[in-house]
Amino acid sequence: MRKADIEKAIIQLMVDEEEIRNRARKLKEMERKETEEGGSSYSDLTALLDELMALETSKQEYAAH
After folding, report:
1. What backbone phi and psi angles, to 5 degrees, belong to 35?
2. Could you give the CA distance from residue 45 to residue 26 in angstroms, rounded to a whole number?
3. What is the DSSP string of 1-65?
4. Pick from 52, 46, 49: which is nearest to 60 by CA?
5. At 15, is the pLDDT very low, low, confident or very high (cuts 50, 70, 90)?
6. Which residues contact 42 (CB under 8 A, 6 or more apart)?
7. First to last CA, the chain
8. Contact 39, 33 (CB under 8 A)
9. Which of 1, 17, 34, 38 has the fewest Cβ atoms within 10 Å of its own Cβ atom?
């Protein structure tokens, strides 16, 4: 393997690493926005909790009769 080939491979690895870091930053920001109030994940979780609480209330009302 020639010196130039090794240098090229190292430079490519450095570029790939920076691209991976940039992608990770973008994904982190997307995740943060989705879990904030009003975000899609936050809304979905809130809806699930509302359904579970309604189900529990229905079960309690049924058991009381």
Report:
1. -95, -5
2. 22
3. --HHHHHHHHHHHHHHHHHHHHHHHHHHHHHHHHHSTTSHHHHHHHHHHHHHHHHHHHHHHHHH-
4. 52
5. confident
6. 34, 35, 36
7. 82
8. yes
9. 1
